[in-house]
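Final report, section 2: Outcomes. Of the targets proposed, Effector from type III secretion system family protein is the one most frequently requested by collaborating groups, and we therefore present its record in full.
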Amino acid sequence: MSSLHIQNLSTTVPGNALFKIKLDHKFSNFNPKAQPAIDIEAINSGLYALKRLATILDAGTIHASSLLNPHNTIFPSPPKQPKRSDNSTTTNTNNDTTETIASIQEATAVALVPTILNGLDTLIESVTELNLSQVSSITLAIALVSPLKDKDSLNETQQKTVFNNSYEPTDDDLITQIKKEQASAIQSGQQALREKLTAAGATEENIQEALTEYENTFAQDFFDTYVSKQIMTYRSSVGACTLQMMQDMSSIATQPPEPTQYNVDEVNARVVLLSIFDGLKDAVQKNPALGGNDEIIKTQLALSKYLTQSSLSEDDIQTIYTASVLPQQSTLDEYLPSRDGALYREGIVSAYQTAVQNLNTVRLSIENEKETLENQLELFQKAQNCFSTWAELTDIIVKQKEYTSEIVTAAMESYAGLMNLSQIYGYLQQDEKTLIEPYVNSILELKVKNNDVSMSGFIARTIVFQELADYTLQNFINNESTIQTYLNNKGQLFKTNYSFFSDIGQDVSTIATTSLGTYLTTAQSRGQQGQTTYYIPNFANFVEQIKIADNEELPTEATEILNNFSKAATEHIQKLQQQITDLEEKYEEFDPANASFTDERANAVTSWLNSESLGSAFIYFILNSQLPKQSILLDPLIEEINFNNLAANAINKLLEITNTFSTTSVYYNFSSYLVESKEGENLFCGDYYETLVAVSKEKDHIFNDVNLCRRASVLVEELMKKINTLSGASSSQITEMRNATANYNYALNITLNQLNVLNALLTSLTITPEMDNNTVKENVFKIVGMKDWMSTLASLEGFIANGFPNISITGGLGTLFTQIQSDQQNYTTQSQTQQLNLQNQMSSVQQEWTLVSTSMQVLNKILTHLAGEIYPN
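The predicted structure is given below as tokens.
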């Protein structure tokens, strides 16, 4: 039905109802000549709004103005939600003014003095049917206020005197005076009433009740006829002054900042406080006489000091909430039409609705902060574990140095563990950085070789070999100065770009300058241009450079440092866990069901409903209560779905690159083949040429996987940049995804070095056919390498598939693929779970709106039938 059709409906409704509402019963008080019980415009506008509502409520940005008849005066649009300040730290406005609440109040008191004196004189003169000069409250008010006449300033006591007498006389004072002066007339009427009731056989109790009612009715009628207009005029003059006071005070009031867990109680109290003052201002503007009522003036004076008060105590907040149920409904009814009284109550209800939304907003922020802290705790625990396993490597460096596979593993893990710590360090909080840094530096300063090589120098030697393996085996380099320049630049890069690597980077540059040849050897390549010499890493010499530990106290010294770190780390972890527990308690504390204003809010809603029309209340609750509640419920689910989909899609690309890593154990197995074919020292059974092909294939796999790791690293870096600028995600979601993505980066760096060292070992092996009297022996070949090369090869191939055994972030192609695949599946599963939750919630929402639609249809029938009975024509 179009709005044009609705607006041009007849103002009468035919009474062809399914049931009849009888209004002509003998006990009915219905008066057809009285003001209409239902305004047809209200029916038209209200039902139009309710009918349209069912089809357009899915618009999240809907506002009441789009629902209502544009010519309607019965259902004005509900107030918009208060706008938030752009700056959450800004709490005051109008800072340029020098006015204060006290100065405004004093100026109002000064202005009220002549208003009271002149107004009371005029009131006494204008009411000729009653001797108001005999009313004690009027006489006392004139006596107390007169000495303050012509004063330019008033102290607090004098101001109190003025305000306390500004609402005198009260209606009760005037009614009492009427009863006193009209006593004879009242008694005469009561005597006649007694005689009639006695003749009718009424009991004495009933007679006394009737006589009392007669006296009160007589006095009220007399008041309405001869006094009401004049007293309202006087109160209007007082109300003009108090209205100006409220307007001036509101202009300098402290505005509520953005709600947080630390200020939400105060913010909510300020929202309600401003709503009270705004409502009173609007009400007094509609009838200035209300501003001269004692309840209004007392409320203003009681609350005004809080408008600019820098902070509110619990008692202050409770005072504000208690005042929200004022003034009494009888006061509003005396001065305002029912609709205007309802609008005042509606403003208070709206303020409480905003307070509830503030609590829900804060709860969401607390949940986000808790999840962020949990991510922070997880990251710090990862750093703690990384430090612990890294420090424990000192035991292997000293005690297992004679076993090549063990010392090579320990050297590689020492570098990998420190690099992991350095990268994690960048994401730690400042206090966590301050905690961990001295312990890491202490380990690095420990001596591996007495008076010669520290842990920094030991790690620098490993870096030199791994960087040379990467550079020389991935490129054809036949110029030592080129290698020297490359390694020196790498040293400077480590020194400036990585935490904890300052001394290590310098040691790398020093080695590049002074002892590069120790880590290199030459190989021959035969091509079209003849035989060419090029450089490759010298694995045997590298092993000798790391088998140097002679400080037997190194493990003990490292253990002492580790114990001290563990104690400090445990205290920090307990602190974070307590913060998480506190946030969980705060989350429950800010449950709107347990809010400190619950009772006052219930009273405000009840008062509003008792004064509001059914249709308007219905619309208001849908727009300002039901929709925000559903939004608060559904928005986090939608955000979680979007985030999980985004994360899963991002990891899908990484999964595509690393997909072949799942089968690494199949093609990194040269050591297994050799173990099964070993015949004697350096001798193996099998075809010599097939063995060369097997080594060549494994090196090809290394080359391909190195390239894949580099591609994956580039993608991870791009993901990190996108994550840091990700919009539409909470800080906890960003932290979670950043930490997970950073883990891939750590693992890729480690895996690259594992591949390079394996490649270096394979390159160092010399494979030749076995000779017997200058004749090649069939199915036997020889492999020569440094000491324990077979066990070292087996270890290195194992690292490629499964990662390092002794540190927390292990690396390894297989492990990396498994982690990426697991994360992708987790994000996908979480997204599917949240989509199911969303579907279930939407089903519940649909059921709610079905109930709303049914209620609207019932309301339509009731109002239509009722209107038909009242106006049958």
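Residues 488 and 510 are 8 Å apart (CA to CA).
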